[in-house]
Amino acid sequence: MIFEIDIPTREEFELIDITPLVNEKIRESGIKEGIAIIFTRHTTTALFINENESGLLEDVREFLQSLVPKGKGYRHDRIDSNAHSHLRSILLSPSLAIPIKDGKLLLGTWQSVIFAELDGPRRRKVFVKICEC
């Protein structure tokens, strides 16, 4: 089963906890044990697992901005001025594989699935493949 999650973003850089949305798709699937593969097809978005705490999310923003600053004269900027977004996405990942137990993601106490919008605002899609095993 493959499910699609629509994510309308509102800012150029935005970090969104999509854990409840993924767990909702797992509930819809009826699968109690298995694996969820979560994937974004956009080259200026990413996924990661970490704590959904506002201070940490601001630290992530500042870390990526300092590591890959906007407007540094990247060659790709001649096309559409978003090279920094592409480069930041390379540091993260377009996909995650997470076990499912008791009908929900098997995450640690403080873990959440975070969707990173790096070139918004836009309408984005995340795909969730749910496999029983």
From TrEMBL:
UniProt cross-references to InterPro entries, sorted A to Z: UPF0047_YjbQ-like, YjbQ-like_sf
Name of a matching Pfam family: YjbQ
Lineage top rank: taxon: Archaea
Gene3D superfamilies reported for this sequence: YjbQ-like (2.60.120.460)
PANTHER family: UNCHARACTERIZED PROTEIN YJBQ-RELATED, UPF0047 PROTEIN C4A8.02C
Family classification: Belongs to the UPF0047 family.
Name of the protein described by the UniProt record: YjbQ family protein
Organism the protein comes from: Thermococcus litoralis (strain ATCC 51850 / DSM 5473 / JCM 8560 / NS-C)
